Amino acid sequence: MAALSDGGPRPPAPGPVLVYDPDCSVCTAFVRQLGKRVHPSTALQLTPSSHWDGPGAEWTDRSAVFYDSKEDAFHVEEQAIGRALMIAGPLPRVAGNLIIRQPLKPLARTVYRAIARNRHRVGCQGSCSLPR
């Protein structure tokens, strides 16, 4: 199972990190399922955006962020999701490859953005809920 962060803001981790919005029910459901499937040897950390001040932190208010310390690079939106899936195991790796590569990359971006734009309609709290 992937490590879930429970502390305050933290610097870049030694391994890969998926930063997600803990107020978004879609994000937390995805992270919960991903955490069940990730092999501990991957050292993937699943970190709420409020606990991340590393690379890509400026994107965490509106997007998932995947940080890879080996590449010292971060990826956002569907690319973050795809890269996290690619290290989760054989079947998720297939899905991750489809998300980040052509010809499905534009479709994956469209789907990610449609979900992100409408997440307030699917049970989000706090930062992604709309004022009434």
Structure description:
The chain is α/β, with parallel strands linked by helices and 132 residues long. The protein is built from 4 helices and 5 strands. Strand 2 (17-20), helix 1 and strand 3 form a beta-alpha-beta unit. The longest helix is centred in the first third of the chain and has 13 residues, at 25-37.
**DSSP helical segment count:** 4
Strand content: 5-15%
Shape: globular
The tally of strands reads: 5
Unreliable spans: none
**Ends: how far apart?**
38 Å
Order of helices and strands: EEHEEEHHH
Can you summarize the main beta sheet? 5 strands, mixed
- Which structural category fits the helices and strands? alpha/beta
**Helix content estimate:** 25-40%
| Average residue pLDDT | 85
Strand order of the largest sheet: 1-3-2-4-5
Rg for CA atoms: 14 Å
Helices and strands, with pairings:
Blueprint: E1 3-4, E2 17-20, H1 25-37, E3 45-48, E4 65-68, E5 73-76, H2 78-86, H3 90-100, H4 105-117
Parallel strand pairs: 1-3, 2-3
Antiparallel strand pairs: 2-4, 4-5
Helix pairs in contact: 2-3
Task: Summarize this entry quickly.
This protein is an alpha/beta fold and 132 residues long. 35% of the residues lie in helices and 14% in strands.
Supply the key terms.
132 residues; alpha/beta; 5-stranded mixed sheet; 4 helices; 14% strand
